[in-house]
Amino acid sequence: MSLDWMLSAVCAGVDPELWHGAGGTLTKAKKICAACPVRPQCEAYGRELEGSAALKDRHGVWGGTDAKARARRRKQSRPAKADRDAQILRLTEHGVSPKEIAELVGVTDRTVHRVKNTTERSAA
Q1: Three-class SS of residue 112?
Q2: pLDDT at 17
């Protein structure tokens, strides 16, 4: 992912501690983010950095969102389990590797193998 967009960020010259503080400092950070032209890219970058980390391991403000808001959006953007499993199986049938499937669907390699194995056992 290219990070050129960061050069256009409103926060580029502001103390980075403001985005990783607590309480009132996070409120200030969110206000600064509100007028930023690269807010969507920043929020997506924050979610990418955090990956599937637990909420307690997420911190700071990215794109005007705090850790709880990003966790909530990530959860809402995940496909329903049945849809996700069907997508994994379709990709498997088309010869896509488990690692590639995991990246495409946004799950771990272990989840891909679990879905495949569960389906194979059901069919037997």
Answers
A1: helix
A2: 84
**Rounded to the nearest 5°, which phi and psi values hold at 62?**
-130, 125
Do residues 47 and 11 share a domain?
Answer: yes
pTM of the predicted model, to two decimals? 0.56
Mean pLDDT for the chain?
Answer: 84
69 with 85, same domain?
no
124 near 110, Cβ under 8 Å? Answer: no
What total of structural domains would you count in the chain?
A: 2
- Alpha-carbon distance of 103 to 89, in angstroms, equals 14
Q: Which helix (H) or strand (E) holds 5?
A: none
* Alpha-carbon distance values, 59 to 18, 47, 104 (Å): 12, 11, 25
Stretches where the chain sits below pLDDT 70 are 1, 23, 52-54, 77-79, 124
Q: Verify that 91 and 64 share a domain, yes or no.
A: no
- Do both 90 and 118 map to the same domain? yes
**pLDDT the model gives residue 78:** 64
Write the single-letter amino acid at 27.
Answer: T
Closest to 20 (Cα-Cα) out of 6, 10, 30: 30
